[in-house]
Write a structure and sequence with these properties.
- The structure is a single chain.
- By secondary structure, this protein is mainly α.
- Helix content is 49%, strand content 6%.
- The protein is built from 18 helices and 6 strands.
- It has a 3-stranded antiparallel β-sheet. A 3-stranded antiparallel β-sheet has the order 4-5-6.
- Strand 2 and strand 3 form a beta hairpin.
- Helix 9 crosses helix 18, helix 10 runs antiparallel to helix 11 and helix 11 crosses helix 18.
- The structure holds s-citryldethia Coenzyme A (SDX).
- S-citryldethia Coenzyme A binds next to loops.
Length: 430
């Protein structure tokens, strides 16, 4: 990394502190604030709006220009030309695979798509109406109890097998959540199907019927996985990195990422978009809700709009919008009232001066919910699918961090504004 320096003067009577400035291959420079601690001072950045938490070579986002690159490849090109397992290879190992590497990777993933039979018993501990994200947090964390022989994070082969197991098993576990919720039997993966076909088979197939993949729906599902595969240092990825910095095993770290993704401000937004569209109900009420979203005193926000980084159109939303049209066409729901309502909401929001001023554009979640709904996926499973797709991003960041030479525990400090020291008061005197 090339460096220059900036001077920081905390006390005019003392020498200025020299802070190194690093430039990456793309994007903003960063100021190394390490020397500030020596001056017994901390930097303060709640919400990390101006903080680069790490160095990474995996994903690059340019929020002002709506650019998203996985290992340098534009998301639009990957979504159109690659399949999800090729994208997984690029995220995990640094580049798209050639034909031999791709076949070897597909075979490796296929070797791990099944889960231990004892995992079925874990599901039985949940109510049938348990939110599937609650089940996923539990069962993914519990996976570590099945692989005692390969959890040494200092061994590259253990890191790699854990990553492949997670990518391979997430569709199986996600489909099991759905089957468990509707009281139908779990289906075992069929490895002659593609990754996306296998997920749709395990989700919608039944033992008593032959199941044929629909290539348009399978391609759409595969593209949804690619669009959600990684996104730099978002809240759930940062959670995985912080958990991993303690040396926790990869399954526990991914379980932490699933928990963080569940929030409606993050991965729970696609589920929240559908709930919002149901609440709005009719195009005639869109103006009322846009007005509420502008009202500072009203906690209502337009779910699926806005982004911490994108102050332009989310490039994933553009691809997601096209995929949404394809799926609605394929399932004969092009004139779906929900999609028409979403189009009306998008048009009005994009023309509203508040949204223009705040640079609030539709994000990936705005269209993914409608698309998943058209695929027949229940709303409660939307974030599970987001977690399925994002697991490769989480584990790629985990691998990058754990294998980096400067790997150490993350431990932020704080600005303390609580009581100054005071003596204990006996109960009788309080
Ligand atoms: C994801 O980080 C990632 O990369 C995440 C993600 C990924 O792939 O990992 O891209 C996935 O999480 C996408 C975002 C999904 N969330 C939603 O759609 C929920 C609705 N959006 C908002 O909650 C919000 O936009 C966030 C959480 C996404 C971003 O929040 P920020 O960056 O903290 O922005 P902010 O809340 O400070 O908003 C800035 C201003 C505020 O007004 P002021 O305080 O400046 O007056 O914009 C307003 C907000 O009130 N605002 C909205 C709004 N989003 C922001 N007003 C109405 N409706 C909205 N949706």
């Amino acid at each position: 990394m090339t460096t220059k320096t900036v001077q920081l003067t905390l006390d005019p009577n003392q020498e200025a502190i020299e802070l190194p400035v690093y430039s990456g291959t793309l994007g903003q420079d960063v100021i190394d604030i390490g020397p500030v601690a020596k001056a017994n001072t901390f930097t303060f950045d709640p919400g990390f709006t101006a903080t680069a938490s790490c160095e990474s070579k995996i994903t690059y986002i340019d929020g002002a220009n709506g650019v998203l690159l996985y290992r340098g490849y534009p998301i639009e090109q990957l979504a159109e030309k690659a399949d999800y397992l090729e994208v997984c290879h690029a995220l995990l190992y640094g580049d798209l695979p050639n034909a031999t590497e791709k076949q070897a990777f597909v075979d490796k993933i296929n070797n791990h798509t099944m889960v231990h039979e004892q995992i079925h018993n874990l599901f039985n501990g949940f109510r049938r109406d348990a939110h599937p994200m609650a089940i996923m947090v539990g069962v993914v964390g519990a996976l570590s109890s099945f692989y005692h022989d390969s959890l040494d994070i200092s061994r590259p082969e253990d890191r790699d097998i854990a990553a492949c197991r997670l990518v391979a098993k997430m569709p199986t576990l996600a489909a099991m959540c759905y089957k468990y919720s509707i009281g139908l039997p779990f289906l075992y993966p069929q490895n002659d199907l593609s990754y996306a076909e296998n997920f749709l088979y395990m989700t919608f197939g039944v033992p008593s019927e032959k199941w044929e993949p629909n290539p348009i729906l399978a391609r759409a599902m595969d593209r949804i996985f690619t669009l959600h595969a990684d996104h730099e240092q978002n809240a759930s990825t940062s959670t995985v990195r912080l958990a991993g910095s303690t040396g926790a095993n990869p399954f526990a770290c991914i379980s932490a990422g699933i928990a963080a993704l569940w929030g409606p401000a993050h991965g729970g937004a696609n589920e929240a978009v559908l709930k919002m569209l149901d609440e709005i109900g009719d195009v005639s009420r869109v103006g009322e809700y846009v007005k509420r979203a502008r009202d500072k005193d009203d906690p209502f926000r337009l779910m699926g709009f806005g982004h911490r980084v994108y102050k332009n159109y989310d490039p994933r939303a553009k691809v997601m919008r096209e995929t949404c049209h394809e799926v609605l066409e394929a399932v004969g729901a092009s004139d779906s009232p929900k999609f028409k309502l979403a189009m009306a909401l998008e048009k009005i929001a994009l023309e509203d001066e508040y949204f223009i001023e705040k640079k609030l554009y539709p994000n990936v979640d705005f269209y993914s919910g409608i698309t998943l709904s058209a695929l027949g996926i229940p709303t409660t499973m939307f974030t599970v699918i987001f977690a399925l797709a994002r697991t490769v991003g989480w584990i790629s960041h985990w691998k990058e961090m754990v294998s980096s030479p400067g790997f150490r525990i993350g431990r932020p400090r704080q600005l303390y504004t609580g009581p100054t020291q005071r003596d204990f008061v006996e109960l009788a005197d309080r």
